[in-house]
Amino acid sequence: MDQPSTSARNAAPLSDRTAPAASDRSAPTAAPAPGPAGATAPRGDAEPRWLGEEEQRTWLAYVHASTLLEDYLDRQLQRDAGMPHLYYALLVQLSAAPRRRMRMTELARSSKITRSRLSHAIARLERSGWVRREDCPTDKRGQFAILTDGGYEVLQHTAPGHVEAVRQAVFDRLTPAQQKSLGEIMRIVAEGLQPKEAGADLPWLR
What is the pLDDT of residues 179-188, one digit of tens each? Predict the structure, then answer.
């Protein structure tokens, strides 16, 4: 039971990308470059904080890598298990939970997705026989998502190929020091996008 949940955590879905195009017309950037005289398009009274050249290169490198990585992992999982990366990640989380079950609200929070998107994904997984839902006995509005034996078997079959894909795509290309830096950077970015104050606009609260 531990193997799928431990190995697959290395492949958490990456965040969405946004930005218009600049020097590379096929690739998104964080902002258009200023004109020859340094003119920029004003936003109210504040001057936009355009990215510098090195920042732009870093941003594009992230956008390209995250887009390619998600496509690579999706194709591997569709080929080996007939499911997208998100569905696999949900099965992994359920496999690691006590009694292989989680409240739907908690599963949405840990997956960083909206509740409606989670409901759609769980419905698809139910139709495949890999997950079932159960009403919460202490909360009439609450539900549990539960990993079935069939879903766990799918994880056992799929996890070895998936973790190998993750290793080849990411960890085999990085030194131990680079791996540590990447983890630290991603944690900083993730924490900054999850404000703790009441009323924060977070996916799992929508």
Answer: 999 999 999 9
**Could you give the C-alpha distances from 44 to 40, 41, 47, 98, in angstroms and in order?**
12, 10, 8, 51
Provide the token pair at 43.
């936003």
Tokens (6 digits) for 51 = 């990215």
Sheet of strand 139-147: strand arrangement: 101-103, 139-147, 131-136
pLDDT tier at 28 (50, 70, 90 boundaries)? low
Q: What is the rounded distance in angstroms from the CA atom of residue 69 to the CA atom of residue 75? A: 10
* 136, 143 Cβ separation under 8 angstroms: yes
Give the integer Cα–Cα distance in Å for 63 and 84. 20
95: amino acid identity, one letter: S
Q: What are the structure tokens assigned to 99, written together?
A: 């009694």
For strand 131-136 and strand 101-103, is the pairing parallel, antiparallel, or unpaired? unpaired
Q: Which residues of 180-193 are buried (b: 16+ CB within 10 A; e: fewer)?
A: eeeeeeeeeeeeee
d(CA 94, CA 71): 23
At which residue do the structure tokens 């839902």 appear? Answer: 133
Q: What are the tens digits of pLDDT across the range 104-116?
A: 999 999 999 899 9
**Cβ neighbours around 92 below 10 Å, total:** 24
Other C-beta atoms closer than 10 Å to the C-beta of 81 total 20
Torsion on CA atoms 18, 21, 22, 26, rounded to nearest 10: 120
